[in-house]
Amino acid sequence: MSLVYFLFAQTLLFAIPLMIVALGGMFSERSGVVNLALEGIMIIGGFSGVFFMHYMQENDIMHGMPLLFLSLLIAGIVGLLFSLLHAFAAINLRADQTISGTALNMLAPAIGIFIAKAVQDGSQNVSFTNEFRITKVPVLGDIPVLGDLFFKNCYVTTFLAIAILLISAYFLLKTRTGLHIRACGENPQAADAAGISVYKTRYLGVILSGILGGMGGLIYIIPISTEFTCSVDGYGFLALAVLIFGNYSPYRIAGAAFFFGITKTLAYTYNSVPFLAALKLPDTVYKLIPYIATLILLAFTSKNSAAPKADGIPYDKSKR
Question: How many angstroms separate the CA atoms of 153 and 6, rounded?
Fold first, then answer.
């Protein structure tokens, strides 16, 4: 049973940032803007959050949960500002959204490395102390089974992610603004005729993706390392796969993220699983599992995708 608890905890560490970033991408895509810059947004958001934590801890200014929440806020704000570059290029300048996103993916690590080396006398690695793991949540940690699964050796970001999922689902599916976002992605001409500002709504979608992408970058880094090297190991692209596999729907995205979290966990902890360890396959084979699963699932699900159209923006300057 301890093996199950261990694998579940590791799955959450991989699935939670995937889900948050994919939910961010969902808002952008549902508004009609393809956000291929999620990787870059994760990097720049994660870098800013880690850099802030490094400064606060090194100067003994702030520690604990207040530092974590403030770092998440900063990561989200920086992610928002960075995503505005993509929004301006894709919406105002009507640039190719794929090229714009790719450019930002290349720009983000360059900015992070440049700033880190300039401030730290040549070192590009930004270190921090992980003081955010919760050994046991009082009372809740004593609940049979659930206590071991969710409330022991956990991070508060797990519960934050669940809250973000519920809020995102309600906002997109139950509110007027969410309806506007979906309308601008599915039929921008009809939305424009109904008096909805397609430009402003799509800006909102990209901004939300920037906030969640930046936060997701920091959430990904904290549990797995104590230093940041301006890389998130392709998680932004994997989040795009989760977004497509989840058919641009909040709860399906959560399920897809959990599935990819399992494959990622098996790829990195196969030595702890007796069946996989007994196969004695090369290490590379196990690490290919998440990406092979991604290709297979996308091949079978992309044809039935509910992806909104990313074109047809009514060119009306008065409604920007």
Answer: 10
- Closest alpha carbon to 127 in 116, 138, 135, 118: 116
Residue 134, strand partner residues = 154
- The whole-model pTM stands at 0.89
For residue 117, the tally of other CB atoms under 10 A from its CB is 13
Give me the residues paired with residue 228 across strands.
126
Residue 317's pLDDT is 44
**Is the per-residue pLDDT at 316 higher than 80?**
no
Compute CA distances 139 → 62, 131, 142, 163, whole Å. Answer: 27, 21, 5, 20
Give CA separation, 60 vs 41, 124, 247, in Å.
Answer: 28, 22, 45
Task: Determine the Cα angle at 213 with ends 116 and 26, to 5°.
Answer: 160
CB neighbours of 188 closer than 8 A, spacing ≥ 6? Answer: 32, 198, 309, 312, 313, 314
Q: Is 60 helix (H, G, I), strand (E, B) or coil?
A: coil
Q: Which two tokens stand for residue 311?
A: 């074109």
